[in-house]
Design goal:
Keywords: Membrane, Transmembrane, Transmembrane helix. By secondary structure, this protein is mainly alpha-helical. It is built from 3 helices and 2 strands.
């Protein structure tokens, strides 16, 4: 009977020590930035995307951001209506219209 109690106590102590060592190893990994163990991390990019879709007004904001991105990437189809040559001292202004 006493032998069984000692064996059960040994198993509990070994499990406790094992849990403690695993916890310490995971904390060390967290300090190195490999994982998040005890501290809460912010939303993942998937979670952030989901929250944007659910939040009111998110569609309008997302649409405006896409339009701004497109506007920045699109180059004008024509040259500016004026040209300045500082070395020659000449400024040329093109008239807008169909014959220009």
């Amino acid at each position: 009977m006493a032998n069984t109690v000692w064996q059960a106590g040994g198993v509990v102590a070994a499990l406790g020590a094992g849990v403690f060592l695993v916890d310490q190893a995971l904390l060390r990994m967290e300090r190195r930035g490999w994982i998040y163990w005890r501290k809460r991390k912010g939303l993942s990019s998937i979670g952030a995307d989901f929250m944007q879709e659910v939040a009111p007004g998110a569609q309008a904001t997302k649409r405006a951001m896409e339009q701004e991105r497109v506007r920045k990437n699109v180059k004008p189809a024509e040259e500016p209506p004026f040209r300045v040559d500082l070395d020659a001292g000449v400024v040329r202004i093109r008239r807008p219209g169909p014959d220009a």
